[in-house]
Amino acid sequence: MTLMTGIGAAPAGSARPARKSGRRWLPYLLLLPGTLWLVVFFFGPMLTLGAASLWDPAGSLQTGYAQTLSFGNYVDAVRDAGPQLLRSFWYAAIATLIGVIIGYPLAYAIALKAGRWKYLLLVAVVAPMFTSFLVRTLAWKTILSDNGALVGLLRDIGILGADGRLLATPIAVVLGLTYNFLPFLVLPLYASLERLDRRLLEAAGDLYASPARSFVKITLPLSMPGLVAGTLLFFIPAVGDYINAELLGNPNTYMVGNVIDSAFLVRLDYPHGAALSFALMFLILIIVMVYLFRSGTDEVV
Amino acid sequence: MNYRIGRWIADRWVMGVGLLVLAYLALPIIVVAGLSFNRPSNRLSYDFNEFTLDNWTNVCGPAGLCDAVLRSVQIGFLATVFATVLGTLMAFALARHKFFARPAVNVIIFLPMATPELVMGTSLLALFVTGSVALGFWTILIAHVMFCISFVVVTVKARLAGMDARLEEAAMDLYATPFQTFRRVTLPLALPGIVAAALLSFSLSFDDFIITNFNSGTTVTFPMYVWGANQRGVPPQVNVIGTAMFAIALLLVLATNVRRRRGARVA
Amino acid sequence: MPEMESTAGDLHIANVTKRFGIFTAVDDLTLTIPQGAFFALLGASGCGKTTTLRMVAGLEEPTAGQVRLGDRDITRLRPYQRPVNTVFQSYALFPHLDVFENVAFGLRRRKVRQVASQVERMLALVQLEGFTKRRPAELSGGQQQRVALARALINHPQVLLLDEPLGALDLKLRRQMQIELKRIQTEVGITFVHVTHDQEEAMTMADTVAVMNAGRIEQLGRPAEIYEYPATAFVANFLGQSNLLAGEAAGLSGGDVLVSAYEQRFAVPAVRARADQGPVFLGVRPEKLALVADGAAVPAGHQSVAGVVTDSSYVGVSTQYLVRTGWGTELAVFAPNSGTAAPLALGARVTAHWDPRHAFILRREPGEGDRTTPVLDEPDAVGAVS
Amino acid sequence: MPEMESTAGDLHIANVTKRFGIFTAVDDLTLTIPQGAFFALLGASGCGKTTTLRMVAGLEEPTAGQVRLGDRDITRLRPYQRPVNTVFQSYALFPHLDVFENVAFGLRRRKVRQVASQVERMLALVQLEGFTKRRPAELSGGQQQRVALARALINHPQVLLLDEPLGALDLKLRRQMQIELKRIQTEVGITFVHVTHDQEEAMTMADTVAVMNAGRIEQLGRPAEIYEYPATAFVANFLGQSNLLAGEAAGLSGGDVLVSAYEQRFAVPAVRARADQGPVFLGVRPEKLALVADGAAVPAGHQSVAGVVTDSSYVGVSTQYLVRTGWGTELAVFAPNSGTAAPLALGARVTAHWDPRHAFILRREPGEGDRTTPVLDEPDAVGAVS
Amino acid sequence: ACGTKGAAQTEDTCVSEDLSGTEKTLTVSNWPQYIDVDEKDESKRPSLIAFEQKSGIAVSYTEDINDNNEFFGKVQNQLTACQPTDRDVIVLTDWMTARMIRLGWFQKLDTAKMPNFQKNLLPSLKGRPFDKNTEYAVPWQSGLAGLAFNGNVAKEIRTVDELLTRPDLKGKVTALTEMRDTMGLILLSNGHDPSNFTKAQFDDAINKLQKAVDAGQIRRFTGNDYAPELAKGDIAACIGWSGDIIQLGLEDEKIQFVAPDAGVMLFSDNSSIPNKASHKANAEQFLDYYYDPAVAAELAAYVNYICPVAGAKEAMEKIDPDLAANPLIFPDDALLGKAKVFKALTEAEEREYESAFQKVIGA
Ligand SMILES: Nc1ncnc2c1ncn2[C@@H]1O[C@H](COP(=O)(O)OP(=O)(O)OP(=O)(O)O)[C@@H](O)[C@H]1O
Ligand SMILES: Nc1ncnc2c1ncn2[C@@H]1O[C@H](COP(=O)(O)OP(=O)(O)OP(=O)(O)O)[C@@H](O)[C@H]1O
Ligand SMILES: [Mg+2]
Ligand SMILES: [Mg+2]
């Protein structure tokens, strides 16, 4: 008991306020550095970008830009990049759809069917991310080459015409997008399928649900949070990507990212580049909000 | 016995599809690994020509390649450390404390993930341009930490959410002060999540091209090297680096998982 | 009453074996459960009860043997093809569906019409009328349990399997659910196969009880039958407690089997003896023992053992004594607290006596010693805890 | 024995109230637990037991009131500053530490030296000597439970709190753990505060039992005391079962209180009456009732009620009968299966009789009817299940 | 953060200091594979090593320029703010060099200290419009932009019109993202002069290009990365650069460079010294070294572009007579007569034309 007396020596009265205030401060203290970082280096840039998007479009690098609150920049930027903008969302949507179609079975197999191979398979999904994404995309170029084995095979079995090709087509771009962002879809999906209680599937089977019905009625709804998070982590970067369009596509497959890239690096048209960036972000946010609302999942983060 | 075949297929087709998808994921890596042993017929040819180990023995042959890789690893490491520390702290605050500003902070964390890399890259460039900040190593690092934080928070938070809060109460009950509770119980239990977050951070940082390209100034990272080399013929050593990174990731993740499995079957 | 009309719906488990790798979970099990019966399966943890149920439900495939419902071989049918439903120990309610949809699940899968009215009726049966719109997470344990029951029952299965559905409930709630289950079974007349750890539950609810041990059935019969005349030492101590004294049977004498143990001789009616030669246990249930302070007060025809009271614990309904015999074994004795006898003091010299018609004789492995169930304040008995 | 020497270490809970929002979980609770006592806290689910314990442990702060250990006010101390340890219902073992480190955790935090020898000693006490290197996931439920116990005990707390530590174990293991807990408490002499759902557990293990209801203590005392003479209808039916007949007390007559119920008059000793005027319950425990076929066979001085046997269920140790009285209430009667009486047939006319000294009188709200505990095959009694 | 000032600098606003006297170092940024390397050890650069030995200056040579625009994006912040870029020599194409000179971002050379350069620079490269006094830009290599085809997969191609319309080439044609090269060749094919054209002529050319893009004739617009694909045959014909094609031709003689009769585009990549570079004298020494005909020949033998150094052809005959005879390295008058240089654009023109071009190529 003597041990305890030492511990208890602290005056009981003073313990309380210290503890209360300590608790209230702690979370803010923990949040401070990270939040500060994000505020300065994410929201700060967003503000400057916002400012740049309203610069006088008549300015130039040589003469400088005047802040004229030219909201017209948005109209011009969106109008000029209209086709690419539409294409970006369209390609990203198709890629996301394909990603779900092929990523779901993969996540499902790893989470529920792989047994002791689970970690190995999971690693196989994650490890390609360490090989530079450019290196992999270039490898795709080799694989999809007009004179490559794959195209040859597809020509032989008649899926592609004798003159058909994959490289420099929308197919290659969508395939590249699908490929590059698939792990971001599979991982959250896997995590939520992992948590799925298998006994629920047994119960469903016991209650006359065939495996297909069990999937539709139980597995799918219960994996929804993972699916929503995964599709977002897939869709968002895919919309903004321009590397796949550039390396695997043709001039008619360029996406909005290529336009922004060109505005900032080639045309040196900062106001329109910034306006287009902002417009893109707003569009994505709107789509994300609608999607989250429709899918009824708010706690994705 | 016929039903057995049917059932065998019924039980396994998902796995079959999963493996096919994995093959799809692995296909480029296989090509990369194969080309890492290629002696190209000329520097503009990517076709497999002749087997050689030269690329592996002479990785640093092409000028600038190893510098770029080294720089990427440095940045990746530092970005991982910073992002993991900052993100983990935030995750703890969000998972373990209820406070007024929580929804706002959640939004702050979500937005960077919801923003295309390109927009982030350009806006950060705009900030640096406006602030006349010299681009280079440090601006890359700043950018990488920024986009890794959110992923760390989400990963670690998920881990913490699945953790039994009663363990922390038990530790307090056993004379552990709040700090000791954190140090001895919370941290070790959150560790797999933190390790996963760190690996994710590193891969995101090491792999990033778009944001880096905008903010790198005169500094060349590995993805930028590849991008440049692509203009004039990619040296086969790039494939060696790609293959080696894949192998290292494989070993690293496997090792942590083996440790985790040997450790606590807590998840 | 059900035995006659319904052999068509009897559940037959014929020579069923289930192995996991090299481990045999269920070992050549044969069992017939008549249609409409309330059948209880009892046994220690890990003895294969759940595995047996899962094979009946189709969630596990037997390594060998057959499961038949009436004349139909259902061994190879998938779960959703069997007229069998299960109430799972964990309930396994669908967390994303409300109570109504949980209960309606099976009907919807079979495309039955008029779901609403059937669900309403079923929820009324389990007294959850007002709860249709709640999610499982918003229900108490007892309520969840009843939803699980309703969800299974609404399908009018031929057999309802219940895998320790009450295991997670507290004593009072459990008692109430037992009553309800029994009521419902009586009302709907479906075959219930009920797995439980709780022997009192098994005995009060079931028509037939089977005691399983290491993948095999050790004994099967009506509850009173098994309790009063267990077939093995395992059953004697798994279903209630028993005092088992190691002795040697010396053959029949008249209608009795003679047993000598610890230099005393005991007689047991031959109809209550599983063996009449060789090493045996002489068994008496604790409540069948009576304690008297004076050896002379032992009623005529009773047999007795003298000893010292070493422990008493009051459990309300009765007081449980331990009496140490001359050779050191501690016998358990339950004295009902009916208020007729004064409590005995620790250290009191007493004689425990019993009517030979309440004793029984079981086979014993040579060399095995006395077996009495561990009782409170008896630290020596704990060695075997795992 | 402990009461004398140790008022310095008594645990005082003084006027403690705990509210969650507008919900009052613990309501002005006052309680003194003497040092070295084995104190059991009983009560229905949600009545505030866990909350009380958490306030003692410092894991929850009282809305009002004080918690004192001897003379020290510990109300505001943080958990790690209190000489109090807890064995959690879920064990809450640290999954990343092995058994040794789990047990050593508290010592290390307090920078105690010679950890190894103390841990070894403690593991020996809970009979887990060989298990130091295992992780919690590699232990069975019973073993985990003992590690949790060792982890708390090794700190020699002044008070050990046990929150249903046995709740998750099956019957047999539970019995063995009870034995061990009691043994350890006897050996180490620490104050144990034990929360349990299981009344039999509470009665056999504890020196003092408190029955909680809706955030308040309904009765507190030695187990036999409470069982034999409960203070309220809640206690009478929470701790065991009771037959409670609604009647009117008509005041004292000699040493007895007279009660009239259903046109009969009953007398109960005044020392067993909580009221002697107005509406009361006349209570008798089921095991205190005896059944005779012939009303004339009622022993002299006993009181009796006539009825018909409507149900009997065999539970091994005893047979539980329901006897419907003339006015329709069903009385529960437990007849021990000691083999002396033949079982009664359903529908038999019987007389239930009891010694007035075993009856008791409780206050009753005007208008309340008879209260008997729900028994199997009695669907009407289930209305209150929630 | 409301607006920005202009980025232009002058010698007065941005003063550089030369530390060559004390620091014997030099940092050079160049395009990849634009310098000779040892056949046995790719990391050794013989001519560079020789220079280091001769001069005692340690050269840090990096190949970090892949694209004029991209490189401009990289260094513009520093140069706008008159901060060091950490490079003493950078090599950029004519038009980008022109832009940088216009912005005042280059230091004036002291050509008096560069005798070889004064003596050996080809006359046609002296006094170009953007560098009238030949005091900012030292041509590193010149080259031609013309047509190329892979004879394994396509018949010979002679004109830009063929490239843009021939059905058998559909989807197997690339053009360059360098607006001046692609548009210059189209202007030439329309019979217009790239060094002197009108807005209407430019629009004509753009429309012609747009039609080809819309028809799916053009597969991609590329930087140098057309080369591997051309070698492989994924690309049958393209607009390309002479040096690349010569290299490909060495491996596979069916890959040929074609100078259309309508004309080819001539460009140079020029070495310059950016503001704040602190080793100007070392840089001048370095650049002058490469105007020694023997060194120039060694370089040309490796990179296969047009050598801007008079007298190198003679030196080359000693190294490799075949190369010396190659008109794409040492062009004859006939070829030089067909070669045009794109006109110098003002900032406004550049923006207008570049925007129109970017729109056609998809971005
Ligand atoms: N899928 C499986 N793989 C390997 N062994 C298994 C598997 N399922 C069950 N077992 C083993 O089979 C034995 C019987 O298990 P089962 O679940 O039938 O026991 P039980 O009688 O239901 O026990 P409990 O009362 O604890 O529920 C156990 O020893 C168990 O470890
Ligand atoms: N943090 C909380 N917030 C709101 N209500 C709470 C909280 N903790 C407990 N309660 C409520 O307080 C009441 C008492 O809870 P407590 O856990 O003390 O019950 P208990 O007696 O331990 O029950 P059980 O036997 O089920 O463990 C319950 O109704 C519970 O819902
Ligand atoms: Mg089981
Ligand atoms: Mg509780």
UniProtKB/TrEMBL annotation, chain A:
Q: How does it sit in the membrane?
A: Multi-pass membrane protein
What family does the entry list?
Belongs to the binding-protein-dependent transport system permease family. CysTW subfamily.
Query: Where in or outside the cell?
Result: Cell membrane
Q: Where is the chain membrane-spanning?
A: 25-47, 89-112, 119-139, 171-193, 214-236, 274-293
Q: Write out the entry's keywords from A to Z.
A: Cell membrane, Membrane, Transmembrane, Transmembrane helix, Transport
Q: Under what name is this protein listed?
A: ABC transporter permease
Please indicate if the UniProt record lists Nucleotide-binding as a keyword. no
Organism, by scientific name, is: Asanoa iriomotensis
Is the keyword Zinc in the record?
no
Q: Which residues form the ABC transmembrane type-1 domain?
A: 85-293
TrEMBL record, chain B:
| Family annotation (InterPro entries) | Bact_Polyamine_Transport (IPR051789), MetI-like (IPR000515), MetI-like_sf (IPR035906)
Task: List each copy of the ABC transmembrane type-1 domain by range.
Answer: 69-256
Compartment list: Cell membrane
What highest taxon heads this organism's lineage?
A: Bacteria
Asked if the record carries the keyword Hydrolase, the reply is no
Q: Which family does it belong to?
A: Belongs to the binding-protein-dependent transport system permease family. CysTW subfamily.
Q: What is this protein called?
A: ABC transporter permease
To which species is this protein native? Asanoa iriomotensis
Automatic annotation (TrEMBL), chains C, D:
Residue segments, region Disordered: 363-386
Keywords annotated in UniProt: ATP-binding, Cell membrane, Membrane, Nucleotide-binding, Translocase, Transport
Residue ranges constituting the ABC transporter domain according to the UniProt record: 11-239
Q: Indicate whether ATP-binding appears among the record's keywords.
A: yes
What's one Pfam family here? TOBE_2
Q: Where are the transmembrane segments?
A: none
Q: SMART domains this protein is in? A: AAA (SM00382)
> Would the keyword Cell membrane be found if you checked this record's keyword annotation?
yes
Question: What's the protein called, per UniProt?
Answer: Polyamine-transporting ATPase
